[in-house]
Amino acid sequence: MNVLAFSLFLAIVALTLIITYYASKRTKTTSDFYTADGSLTGWQNGLAIAGDYMSAASFLGIAGMIALSGFDGFFYSIGFLVAYLVVLYIVAEPLRNLGKYTMADMIAARFNEKKVRGVAALNTITISIFYMIAQLVGAGGLIKLLLGIDYVYSVLIVGVLMTIYVVFGGMTATSWVQITKAVLLMIGTFIISIIVFSKFDFSIAKMFSEMKSATPLGESFLHPGNKFTNPLDMISLNLALVLGTAGLPHILIRFFTVKDAITARKSVVYATWIIGIFYIMTIFLGFGAAAFVGFDNITAADAAGNMAAPLLAQVLGGDFLFAFVSAVAFATILAVVAGLVLSAASAFAHDFYSHIVRKGKATEGEQIVAARWASIGVAVLSIILALFAQKLNVAFLVALAFAVAASANLPIILFTIFWKRFNTTGAVTGMLVGLISSLVLVIAGPNVWSPEVGGAILVGDPLFSLANPGIVSIPLGFLGAYLGTIFSSKKADQKKFDEILIKANTGMKN
Amino acid sequence: MEGKEVKLEREEQELDYTELVQSPTFQRLMREKRRFILPFSLFFLAFYFTLPVLTAYFTFLNETAFWSLTWAWVFAFAQFIMTWALCMIYTKRSQKFDVLVEDLKKEAGR
């Protein structure tokens, strides 16, 4: 075991626990727990959004994909960034004005019926748990590679830490862990990028021309088409990336942590700058790993390329930089899973328990107890699922989370804000069609079925040929919401829509 | 004391949402928002999807543009520039909307 890396891991754990200790003193009400009482500034929330969003998949996954397949890996960087324009232009401000603690709050602001809130909460839980299992399984494998700690213990360590942050420190602890991680990640990535760039004499021209002969792919390393060979699947993936972000519950709840829509807007803009700069730097990580670590060494450490960035750090800066980058990767995982626990727990406690079971009559004290138990429940469930999923290739769970977010959440959010005629039936059918079609298409697709043994989870020909269902399931989600509305006998409630228009666009409410 | 007075005043003023929606200020706000957000959203989605569609079905973006960069990379970097530019434009334009919202709040007695 690398002693230096281990010490830095411990330092990260200590730092986050100190944050949680101070946050716990400030976590007394449900508003503190779910939204840090709306106390974050635009800058703080911008950093926290970046910290919530830039997962280990972005940091390690994209670096590895660029290193192994060149341009195609960069598609993720572009999609993950441009997605923030959808958030900024369409979703962030109305969401902040209409919602309170959860995404379902926003939909329920217009359709205050149990079934609408229930289905919206179900989508939030589905997306957050799937996404979390993917993160936990990745984390287990990663910590095993970095520190040599057994998979089971790795998952347990991450699982226990995320539970402590959320249960004791709620949104305040989660936000500050995310802010800390975002700063560390930017520093680590920047250092590596500068060193890589210096090796190419700070010349973009030299870097690109040398990369033509630096990998086994030759000149085609710099051309699209090494990873994505099915055009339709690639476009489908891009659709889910760019439209899914605006429907990811753990990102959406971040907008409730600021005081008003103007601050929410500022925080998206700050986040977009930070995330954009980070994704530009993924080129240096990927190119650097391809040139200085080498294709064979990257795949020898991990076939999917996830070790490219830490190995690059080792080559460039020796044990210290390797330890630092590994610790940053660890912090990255912790920050993202904490956000996921909180989003799933708030859907359980706030939407299901407080609103549906207790019909809004639970006291403040009961609600916060429920929120803490829900966090523990969500964490335990995810840990158990992650332990069972160890041997599975869980990459498809991320694709699934983005597809459900884009197909089930985004159409409902858009129609709730913009469509006068939209009604309860449309909201419920839209959400269910989006959710079920994404699930069915992924289960019938090549992520689960492969004709070769070990190619996927089950052996056989996939019924649906695309790995990313977005291109089918997103239109189906919109269609479900539209047809549900058109064919129901309910008339448009003009008065309610007037209320939504005023609230969403001005923040005024009675 | 002051805080209490403001709160009392708020409780007295019950908003009539339908009346507010029909007010010229709000109608202007919605018109200007629509004129800005709709075309810009269509633009960035079109700009974004042009890259994967072109690279998926054609290879002409693989021609070198300059500095050993192919057009595909130039287009990819342009997506970043586009995103940041649209962020700045949104920030600027939304300040105009904020003024209209403030006007409306005054009209509503808030």
Automatic annotation (TrEMBL), chain A:
Main localization, broad class: membrane
Source taxon at top rank: Bacteria
GO biological process, one term: monoatomic ion transport
The keyword Nucleotide-binding is assigned to this record: no
Hydrolase keyword on record: no
Membrane association type: Multi-pass membrane protein
An example molecular function term from Gene Ontology annotations: symporter activity
GO cellular component: plasma membrane
Subcellular location: Cell membrane
Transmembrane residue ranges: 6-24, 45-68, 74-95, 116-139, 151-170, 182-200, 235-256, 268-293, 320-348, 369-389, 395-419, 426-446, 466-487
Protein keywords: Cell membrane, Ion transport, Membrane, Sodium, Symport, Transmembrane, Transmembrane helix, Transport
InterPro entries per UniProt: Na/Glc_symporter_sf, Na/solute_symporter, Na/solute_symporter_CS, Sodium:Solute_Symporter
Pfam families from the UniProt entry: SSF (PF00474)
NCBIfam families noted in UniProt: sss (TIGR00813)
Family statement: Belongs to the sodium:solute symporter (SSF) (TC 2.A.21) family.
Xref: PANTHER family: CATION_ACETATE SYMPORTER ACTP, SODIUM/PROLINE SYMPORTER-RELATED
Protein name according to UniProt: Cation acetate symporter
Species per Swiss-Prot/TrEMBL record: Priestia endophytica
Taxonomic classification: Bacteria, Bacillati, Bacillota, Bacilli, Bacillales
TrEMBL record, chain B:
Transferase keyword on record: no
PANTHER family named among the record's database cross-references: INTEGRAL MEMBRANE PROTEIN-RELATED, MEMBRANE PROTEIN
Residue ranges crossing the lipid bilayer per the database entry: 36-58, 70-90
InterPro entries for this protein: DUF485
Protein species of origin: Priestia endophytica
Record keywords: Membrane, Transmembrane, Transmembrane helix
Protein name per its UniProtKB record: DUF485 domain-containing protein
Pfam families for the chain: DUF485
